[in-house]
Design brief:
Strand content: 15-25%
Low-confidence stretches: none
Largest sheet: 4 strands, parallel
Strand order of the largest sheet: 2-1-3-4
Mean pLDDT: 95
Number of helices: 4
Distance between the termini: 16 Å
Amino acid sequence: MKTYIFACVHNAGRSQMAAAFFNRLADPAKARGISAGTQPGPHVHPVVLDAMREAGIDLSAAKPQKLTDELAREANMLITMGCGEDCPYIPGLRRDDWPLPDPKGRPMEEVRQVRDEIRTRVEALLISEGIAAT
């Protein structure tokens, strides 16, 4: 099974949405998504919880977690969320960066746009990696 890490600094918004969509849409026998951050916040942003609830995904039990060496060792790919120089980098691990705005403090309409863009990118990743659920 392949492991994909979706990471940003606080692990409270974009990376949580990406991992949730990934795990909803990927073939569970082939891949799983993990969400992590370099400086995890205390909780997932409330606006992100609301936006994901609208999409049929409940993130109320999600907790930001630290991106550790242990998580990185089991990963096949790291997808960062456009946090610039603050984005995590793990030598030797295949990486892609999705330059997306942080939903924190944004109005719901903008958060929905970020959410929908993340879903589109996750769907494209699953197809390109051959791990989409059938």
